[in-house]
Amino acid sequence: MNVGQSDSRTVGLLGDKAYLSDCPTVRPSDASLQPIVTKVEQGQRLDRDDALALFRSSDLLTVGSLADLANRRANRDRVYFAANQHINPTNVCVLRNTCVFCSFARMPREDGAYTRSLDEVFAEADAARDNATREFHIVGGLHPKLTLAYYLDMFRGLKARHPDVMIKALTAVEVAHLARIERQSVRDVLLAMRDAGVTSLPGGGAEVFSPAARATIADRKLTGEEWLAVHREAHGLGIPSNCTMLYGHVETLEDRVDHLLALRALQDETHGFLCYIPLAYHPDHNELGERLGRQGTATTGFDDLKNIAVGRLVLDNIPHVKTHWPMVTPFISQVALSFGCDDLEGTVVFERVYHEAGAATQMWLSYDEIIALVRGAGKTPVERDSLYQPVRTFEDWVPGRHAVRPEGPAPLGELFKIEHRKTARAARRAATAIVDSAE
Ligand code: V47
Q1: Which of 136, 254, 285, 436 is the most exposed place for a label (fewest CB within 10 A)?
Q2: Looking at the 3D structure of the chain, how many domains does it have?
Q3: CA of 275 to the centre of ligand 1 (A)
Q4: pLDDT confidence band for 130 (50 / 70 / 90)
């Protein structure tokens, strides 16, 4: 059976009739949005033209109000977050030179390249021992030599050391890469991961499915169809997953809409997506940013909120929409909670991918900070696990009475350092050699 088919978590956003009849009427400043307002208020599905009209409109408040309505129908005023720790076992990646938007990847002998031994991964995770961590979020580069056994031993070892922590691990791109170098099927790799303790897949690697945009920003990466196929396979095995879209680079509004519609179509089929996360492109220390002549934040607050809201409205069958505060700042994330978002990501202890690309946000948030942020938006914080099962609520929480960072002191030392790339661009010939050696 596919995940979600008998699962109350995936209640459709159109389902709460009582709430539908209560909702106030939204009055758009942009009159062309009126037919969409009527559709959303009546709980009807939006089509491609509707989604394009939402992206094209500058009436952000109407789009946001509609998304807020859709979100409240599904999630009321709850805002979820996880006590999570990011672990990135390697930044060596065969796509170092062709995923030109990424600042995290390195060539094997490039400055800053690293590959953790299992003991180092366990030591990093031990920063979580005796603390509140509920999820390890594990992603990294496509290393040409690291085997499936390395990852399976890692998952088993983490599970043995931290039995209560769920493992959300390996993007579809990493899964397909392991299948290729091990000459196994994607299904067998996923089965082995599940047996070793992986609970869910993160949503990375989707970027934007448009072949034209992909050819520019992520040539040689899994195609959109292949990315969807890995998630379809995972859902069929009872492994739920998240999904993402990277926006703010070379994609068109049509590319965004078609990406969302492809995610919605797969969700209609499998019900396996838990959450959608729009990811704001960061241009520092990568070749694309250099080529586009951009530095600092590439997206605007307007676009960040628009992407959240349109995602919420189009993806009427995905239960949760997450704002990733390390990318868009806690300030925008707090506002996003009134634009269709019901998930704030989490404590996110030690995030590397966006900080390598210029994100200037904190390396984690404390419970106090998260709870203040959610309550400040008039919402109710709920700590969750990877599967959106509530872990606890905070009615009796008094700010200031808890450690600044509940996981304990900030992690220090060699394992917790960010060293930016010396050059955004790698030597093209050397990159080809890596790819060839991996094939
Ligand atoms: O696939 C890489 C993105 C993703 C840059 O599933 C960049 O809960 C912006 O998917 N600017 C990986 N984005 C991270 C990811 C994720 C994050 C948080 C939560 C979850 C989840 C998943 O990061 C990549 C890519 O789309 N990325 N480089 C950059 N320069």
Answers
A1: 436
A2: 2
A3: 14
A4: low
